[in-house]
Amino acid sequence: MSLFALCYMFAAYLLGSISSAVIVCRLAGLPDPRQHGSHNPGATNVLRIGGRWAALAVFVFDVLKGMIPVWCGYYLGLTQFELGMVALGACLGHIFPIFFKFKGGKGVATAFGAIAPIGWGVLATMLGTWVLVFVISGYSSLSAVISALLVPLYVWWFRPEFTFPVALVCCLLIYRHHENIQRLWRGQEDRIWGKKSDEK
Questions:
Q1: Whole-number CA gyration radius for the chain
Q2: Which of 86, 88, 93, 172 stands the most exposed, by the fewest C-beta atoms within 10 Å?
Q3: What is residue 30's DSSP assignment?
Q4: Nearest C-alpha neighbor of 107 from the set 87, 124, 121, 122
Q5: In the chain, what is the straight-line distance between the N-terminal and C-terminal CA atoms, in Å?
Q6: Are 106 and 177 in contact (CB under 8 A)?
Q7: Quick check: 139 and 189 in contact, CB under 8 A?
Q8: Residues 6 or more apart in contact with residue 68 via CB below 8 angstroms
Q9: Can you give the pTM of this predicted structure?
Q10: Which of 71, 62, 126 has the alpha carbon at shortest distance from 94?
């Protein structure tokens, strides 16, 4: 990687470190998502404690944290590998934010935003997988895990040059959901349809 790409990756990490869940909840006068609900500063937890509009604001901002650095990096002439590292940097920022004692969300929305610019085919299949699994199961965490498992295959089919970096991002997502996977296996995970959820 070039020095510019490394600096740009760090900038993406700093952008990813901005916790929109904490900021939106403070502006809206809502409880701190790190201390209420599932204690995860992400859109799903904000949905529980603050309602749809607050959750939508968090989701959109988290998507943009991943999308903007990758999109701009593409026009700045970064290589495919460097773009993948930028995407990884943004996700690492969301999951381990330097501004919030390295305690962040699970990175689903940010990863979605970072992967989306790769191509319309990847975007459509990734979104379609998440929605299909969610509609069938009602589990946001299961949707995220299955999507993370399948997205590298979609990328390999549409844009194979991005397969390795995208696979790294997806491995990070699966790791961050290890507690959800254990609860799903034990039948203890809450569906999003109810009032409780442990996702994101």
A1: 16
A2: 172
A3: P
A4: 87
A5: 31
A6: yes
A7: yes
A8: 15, 113
A9: 0.82
A10: 62
